[in-house]
């Protein structure tokens, strides 16, 4: 069952659908983004990719040409509509409505060789991370490639941290178009934290740490 926090997060991104990609316009982040786009496209080369929380399809578009095939999923119909409007190659890219926390059981039969999750890990509570990795392993199988990219916290560029809970999760305040302000889980793990959390479930961890973003690739055990 989707929690109220997860529902709020989905609602927030649905409301921001039309303006979401403006986050990629910040001038100070352009050098990092150029490097990240290149690295993601190369890492996904030749893979049959399951993309989680694809949003507006910004990152789908970055590796669609190099991947063998892509199934890009998201929980928001509004975001998927924007992603579909990018008119990515229909013979390679498909879109599907899916909840990351409740992935369809038939995904295990789709033959995915890789999973890509852009800016998703930071929204996952620390206490839910092991379960997420276990479910992903059940759907993709051992040896599958997992690639994640996410934000680094940079004072003055990132939204301020509003609070930290007892489990160590950090939160930011986000404003909705309906006037509400909600707390959104937004964690900023160090390289050592990533290795410690993922280590029991994956192997061959590689981390690229930039000023504004990080990228992690590994193989599911």
Automatic annotation (TrEMBL):
Q: Where is the Methyltransferase domain?
A: 49-140
* Pfam families, sorted: Methyltransf_25
GO BP annotations of the record are: methylation
Q: Which PANTHER family match?
A: JUVENILE HORMONE ACID O-METHYLTRANSFERASE, METHYLTRANSFERASE
EC number assigned by the record? 2.1.-.-
- What superkingdom does the record give? Bacteria
Q: Which SUPFAM superfamilies does the UniProt record give?
A: S-adenosyl-L-methionine-dependent methyltransferases
Name the species this protein comes from.
Undibacterium arcticum
Name used for this protein in its record: Class I SAM-dependent methyltransferase
């Amino acid at each position: 069952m989707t929690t109220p926090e997860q529902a709020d997060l989905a609602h927030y991104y649905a409301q921001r659908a039309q303006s979401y990609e403006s986050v990629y316009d910040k001038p100070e982040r352009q050098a990092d983004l150029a490097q990240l786009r290149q690295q993601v496209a190369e890492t996904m080369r030749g893979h049959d990719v399951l993309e989680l929380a694809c949003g507006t399809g910004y990152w789908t578009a970055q590796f669609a040409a190099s991947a063998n095939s892509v199934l890009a999923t998201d929980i928001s119909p509004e975001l998927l509509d924007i992603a579909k409007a990018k008119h990515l190659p229909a013979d390679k890219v498909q879109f599907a409505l899916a909840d990351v926390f409740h992935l369809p059981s038939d995904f295990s039969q789709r033959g995915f060789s890789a999973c890509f999750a852009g800016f998703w890990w930071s929204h996952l509570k620390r206490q839910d991370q092991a379960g997420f990795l276990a479910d992903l392993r059940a759907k993709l199988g051992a040896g599958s490639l997992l690639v994640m990219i996410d934000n680094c916290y940079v004072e003055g560029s990132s939204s301020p941290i509003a609070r930290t809970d007892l489990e160590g999760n950090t939160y930011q305040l986000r404003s909705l178009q309906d006037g509400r302000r909600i707390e959104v889980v937004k964690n900023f793990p160090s390289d050592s934290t990533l290795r410690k959390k993922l280590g029991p479930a994956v192997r061959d961890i590689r981390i690229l740490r930039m000023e504004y973003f990080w990228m992690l690739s590994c193989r599911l055990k």
